[in-house]
Design a protein that fits this description.
Two copies of one chain form a homodimer. With 524 residues, the first copy, chain A, is of the alpha+beta class. Chain A has 18 helices and 22 strands. Helices cover 39% and strands 19% of the residues of chain A.
Amino acid sequence: MDNKRGLVPRKIKGFRDIDANLNELRWNIINKASKVYQSYGFEHLDTPILEYAECLGKYMPDEDTVDKGVYSFKNPEIEPVFRADGKRELRDADNNVVMDHAFLSMRYDLTAPLSRVYAERLWTRAIKNQLVEGTAPLFRRYQFGPVFRYETKLDPGRFRQFWQLDFDTVGSSDVASDAEVCMILSDALKAIGLAQSDFKIRVNNRKILKGFLHGQGITTPLQEQAILRVIDKLDKIGLRGIEFELGKGRKDKSGAIIPGLGLDEKMVSNFLSFFEIFSESDMNRGQVIEALGEKIGNNEVSKEGLQELNRINSVLAESGLSDEAVLFDPTLVRGMAYYTGPIFEVESTQFYLDHKGRERRVGSICGGGRYDGLVKQLLGVNVPATGASIGVDRLAELLTLTNRGGTAQGPLLITVLDKEMMPEYQKIAKELREGGVNTEVYYGPNQGFKKLKKQLSYADDKNCPIIILLGSDEFEKGVVSVRDLKMGREIADEVTDKKEWRARVQHEVSRTDLVSFVNQLLNK
Amino acid sequence: MDNKRGLVPRKIKGFRDIDANLNELRWNIINKASKVYQSYGFEHLDTPILEYAECLGKYMPDEDTVDKGVYSFKNPEIEPVFRADGKRELRDADNNVVMDHAFLSMRYDLTAPLSRVYAERLWTRAIKNQLVEGTAPLFRRYQFGPVFRYETKLDPGRFRQFWQLDFDTVGSSDVASDAEVCMILSDALKAIGLAQSDFKIRVNNRKILKGFLHGQGITTPLQEQAILRVIDKLDKIGLRGIEFELGKGRKDKSGAIIPGLGLDEKMVSNFLSFFEIFSESDMNRGQVIEALGEKIGNNEVSKEGLQELNRINSVLAESGLSDEAVLFDPTLVRGMAYYTGPIFEVESTQFYLDHKGRERRVGSICGGGRYDGLVKQLLGVNVPATGASIGVDRLAELLTLTNRGGTAQGPLLITVLDKEMMPEYQKIAKELREGGVNTEVYYGPNQGFKKLKKQLSYADDKNCPIIILLGSDEFEKGVVSVRDLKMGREIADEVTDKKEWRARVQHEVSRTDLVSFVNQLLNK
């Protein structure tokens, strides 16, 4: 037996089951936020879990295996390949249609599928050259659901399948729609149950940084990305760390050497003096705009970015979002390469205690930004777009860690003291449900009066508030016994005498009064 | 350009996007039915989209390609292989741990993952031999979400990703829980909005058929499956067709020859005389039980099945489900091989007209049954289980075809007549939202008074009930123009004069009365 393959029931690493309590939390987040998204005019869209890899862009597997963070595989179906103009099938030298098994990917976010949806709708106009830049139609949608990342290194608490809850405005270059992103995130988080002081929304504009880098002679996207990646670590490694990583490199805690970008000292000091002002500052939005105005000089890109921040500020002011709620933070970078303008991050301000009693933070719970170039990869025409995403699982984790997790209440349980009375139990169950009480009849293996203890432990495991006991004696008397398990749990420590405990939690109720009695108990 | 590969934004065949209207329908179905499931004591479970292929059982890809109706691929991660006893890793002759890229599958239903969850929870007890048959704990869960089938032949209206909405009771052999399945399906469909007369629930017990087949000398599962598959076609091909397919075969409409099973005439006539009684009969449940009692003879398996039907009938009677609502139909088979006892099917009784004006039926909208052997594949111990599934997409299709589809109402739209007034528009939007009105500010490319027409057509596309118009003149007067688009659409045919039309649908309202005025219009 030892040298044979076995079958062990298990989940794939990085995947998990969601139980009733966590589902309560998850769906409270989704339903509350969706309602807020709707209240701003976003419509509900759903897209497939599986897409053509090339239509999701960016990540492209180049082998037969899943690669680069995305679960991908070859389509089992063979299909014609399209020509570059998209109008007809590609043909080989012998004029045969070229066939291929395309790569399919499980979606890694909800933004790439949105780009596909938008591009697909405008495709006919695009290939007829009828789509002029600046006239792409407005489309506002929200979407929620699982996304998938094949992370080879999984940090604790991170998963390969996790839920996102996105809203996006495609077709608007007006940064008022970026200001709106902040309003929506704020409204949604409050609707979910967070207090204003539980989170801060940080805003920056990539154009300001980009322009500043241009001013320093950094012009290639590769250099830009490398520098932004360093600046993104400011929170973790501080200004001193930034200085080393932009310059000569440094050793981290473990003694490992992190190579620097090797920028010259003058440039590094220019960067530092830029970030020094804003790092850990408590300037309000107006002061940040003023300070930036002095710092950025005459670079056109930066000036455009600053102008946009100005418009965002005036819209925010009118919509009642204070300088404490929404901060302008010129040091904010965010990872994604596709952002082109305003960027957003919501940070939880709350602490929790880890298993060693140390104070910890959950950190970022939402993120977003403007990505005017993303749709272009599919459509060939620039289409402005902005939006943000709530990390549903991250937020659920935060709520759980700060003791605001979901507790799913179990149903009332009708115990089965006599198997033959099953039709009667059903009748009572029906009445209770019609009276608004969630009611389960016990169908487990331990039916009968003698196995009541096992039925009770089932009720306890399931957090049932009440059980009902009905044998043939009670039936003939026209009564039912109702035991208040919720109260029973509450007084269990204080009342240790079994008889007294039962006298206090168990009530004999007339059959006709049952529904109203139970409802009274539940509403107590 | 012609001979290069192109990138065309598109969905994979058999996959689709779900728009706001269809989402409204989908989530109404899910939310209403979930509430019913909860009211019976089922808890909400969610499982991953991706699972180890072997843990889903049944369908196993034996090549590097996706096969046999399931999307499968090799895990990019290499992992240790388990020994047959499940306790440790398998080792090769040199005592090295055997490593493998396991196959992963996208779930093809929600029942197989439930078996995995249940088996995983009891695994430790099972490998210690502490799990005795008949003592497996009770677990009742509901789950909804997309499932995936790689169908090579896609009928119109069928999809490769579709949603199911399941509830199951694992650990109960009491067929009262099967009776409950009927109650739940009935309650759920009514909660969703179907009338009692819109559907019929058909019930049978596999044991009766199985016993009957035994009595005819059919004992191997292969023979049994083949015969059941023929009987399953009764609705389509009628008794006459069954006769041929059990016997010598037949020609179908296209002239293609369908081979028969080649059973001898005596046996075929026995089958026919069995099914004749029940096909198209209008016996009530009691009469079916009586007729079966006469037909099945002394076969123990059949007798057990009949006894179960009897218990189901007595529970159903007490729970108010009439003979019209729940039928006993001994000809019902259902496809899945894993059913072992009672089986269920809900059939829509409604017709719709197809594009040629012909009457059509949607057919089956829910199905389920008892599958006492499924968990055993993973756990090695028989665990009784029963449940059913609502086909969410099928039901949504039915509702759409019978003109009860969802219509998502758009938000109120604040048009942008003057870009500089954006902060003011935001302020109004905020007030309206706080007053309970879904409100969108127009951020599209066509801002400004001159492009109002394009903004109006956006509002029409989005089914907005109201738009708001506010320029600097109105602003100074402290008023706002409110146009009732809903009424505008209603009277468009009758009032053709533009001026008159506008006079009837457009109102100048004081800024302070705006929210209450809009609410009045919406509640009209």
